[in-house]
Amino acid sequence: MTRFMKKIISSLFVALLFATTISAQNEKTNVCVDNFGYNTSIGTNWVTNLRNNVIQGIHQTGRLNIIDITNLSNLSNDNEQRLGELRQSNVDVLIKGHFNSLHSLRNYKDGKSTYETTADFTLTLVDTKTGAVLGSENFKNTWYSGSTESESITKALEEAIGDMKKFVDNKFKMEAVIKALDQVDPKKGAKTVYVTLGSEAGIQPGQMFDVYQEIEIAGEIGQKQIGTAKAKEVVSSGITLCTVSKGGVEIKNAFDNNVRLIVVSRAKKDLFGLGDILN
Question: What is the CATH number of domain 174-266?
């Protein structure tokens, strides 16, 4: 078979896959970052700086729709009524922040000053429909600067931008199914697969997934992890091609036996393999 013919067949297969994709796609969650509470010893300009960094970090993930609270005028101070008003504005989750502490320590040695700044803040997720707390996480960032105290504080607060990648991956899980196998090795099993998540859900190359197969236990349906996969190419609003990094044989065998295969997004593991252990 010529390379040209292979490309045509591959294109036809992908087109057919799109046409048969389940209609209920995971869409981006609408979130609103509330104005931060803060310790009164912290300058309001630093509070604004931290909140802006959190918003910037969330935006960079591409995973969530951010509704600007400044565009929502006359929100009630009553918590229950406020959540209802946010819900009417299509906000699914309210992200509440509290700037707990900000400390800078000056060290003077050999005629030079260095500063160590520690910033501590907490983010809490609230379901606007039920008022339930969906989760919270505390962040404590430290930065050393050889310049000024202001620069040290600025750099410590900028750490929040990078923190949001793992925060979003851990707190806003996405779930889909393996729709089709792509490349299969006779010995290693599935090498690449198509999953039912795409650009509509904010998927980007490099996104990690755990792969589970449905199992029946005493009449109840459960899940057993059998592998991992990594997004390789987002090919449509609802389909992503993933590379199987673990469990290729198990994934192929389960798929061939019509076992439902679920993928769940997760954060990348760090150097110590901890990943989302704090989720």
Answer: 2.40.10
pTM score over 0.85: no
Per-residue model confidence as pLDDT tens digits over 202-235: 899 999 999 999 998 888 899 999 999 999 999 9
**SS3 per residue for the chain:** CCHHHHHHHHHHHHHHHHHCCCCCCCCCEEEEECCCEECCCCCHHHHHHHHHHHHHHHHHHCCEEECCHHHCCCCCCCHHHHHHHHHHCCCCEEEEEEEEEEEEEEEEECCEEEEEEEEEEEEEEEECCCCCEEEEEEEEEEEEECCCHHHHHHHHHHHHHHHHHHHHHHHCCCEEEEEEECCEECCCEECEEEECCCHHHCCCCCCEEEEEEEEEECCEEEEEEEEEEEEEEECCCCCEEEEEEECHHHHHHHHHCCCCEEEEEECCCCCCCCCCCCC
Asked: is 29-171 a CATH 3.40.50.10610 domain? The reply is yes
Q: What is the pLDDT of residues 153-193, one digit of tens each?
A: 999 999 999 999 999 999 999 999 999 999 999 999 999 99
Summarised one tens digit per residue, pLDDT across range 63-88 is 999 999 988 888 998 999 999 999 99
Task: Report domain extents, the chain.
Answer: 29-171, 174-266
